[in-house]
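user:
I keep going back and forth on a fold encoding question. Separate attempts, laid side by side, tell us more than any discussion would. Would you put together a sequence-and-structure record for a protein of your own picking? Write it directly below this note and I will take it from there.

assistant:
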Amino acid sequence: MQSLGGFDSAVSSATYVFMAGFLALAAAILGVIWGFRHARSSVLVRFLAATIRGVVFAAPSCAVLLMVGLSTGGPPALAGAAAVVIVLEVGLFGLMGGGARACFASTVPAGVLAGLVTVFLCFGNGALTLLLLAGTTELGGASVPVNVERDDAGRITAYECVGSLHAVEVAHSERVAWLAASNPALLLGSIGAQFVPPDHTVGWMLAGLQYAADGPSRDVPCLDGQSSAGLAPTVPVAFAGFAVQAAFAALLNISERWFAARRAGSS
């Protein structure tokens, strides 16, 4: 019975997380559509208009997530993180949709461009990361961790290394994890992981992308004889996600001006 209770809790937590991720994806897609339909305004006005729409969409989304979280035992902090991410996603993807539309005089090529960008950032980047992940596996040397310290969730936080190295197979997921960071659902997860208690089931789920970005030292301490003191500080993977999205938005809006200048010169 205890195992069945744990299984039900895991399923409820997964439902809560998947619903939050779905709302983040929906916000991105709606942002592109709204931006595409209101591309004639300036970049600043376009972003502010999309952000205001994001606030309108985030309010009921947050309320629904709160109700689901309360009914499933999920942490309410995830709903708050989702509201913030939804507003930002609608704003950034609104810039992308408006920039793509303004790049072309015709709606067909503009729609194709907006669709390609949306599909890549919402689905393609995650699929590409999974495909490339298998190619990051290689042999490394591991030794024995001692003086191990753990956090409240039981994860290793500090250790020293002793003994000779022995060969182990490790996946250097940090080489490709940044590709998936710009996915709205995964970005929400990485933001939510900063607010959800680490010992909660949802906290374990949300921290997955951050662990992948940190590399194999999470799973194989003392890799190549390096103790925790020699590891680089953890950088929140959400920064990379927002940076990639902002780069796409900036590129599309810069291209918009270039295409407009070309059309004006040819007329």
Remarks:
- The chain has nine helices and two strands.
- Strands lie at 137-150, 156-171.
